[in-house]
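Justification of computing resources. Each target in the renewal requires a structure prediction run like the one illustrated here; the chain below, 138 residues long, is used simply to show the kind of job we budget for.
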Amino acid sequence: MSEAIRPDGVYGPDGKPVDGSTSIVRDTVTAIPNFVKLLWRLGQDSRVPTGSRILMFSSLAYVLFPIDFLPDVIPGVGQIDDALLIIYAVNRVLRTAGPDVLDEHWDGSPNVLNLIRGASDVGATLVPKRLRSLLDRI
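Resulting structure tokens:
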């Protein structure tokens, strides 16, 4: 008799559970609140450069402010400027904070933090070079 399928499990192509799948699902779900706490703590930490912290909070204000460079009423396109700015700001804060500060403020699994850092680096490459150079001057 086969094992019962669990809704929180991850299954391979053969239908068998992947080892450690429950921890993968748990780590993924808990990563969101841990990530928000990490950004908040980095925003309060004086070891993170002031320009990076200002950029992060300014980016959040820009996203929440109703007037944008690309209006949000245009489906898909209107959210691109918001997403690119947030991706860049998060990447910059993570890069400038340094690994010791990140490890100190991160509550989750170190593997998830490494995944977030890698995804942030990849996402930052989507930001146009001219915009990156403009934001780097801040």
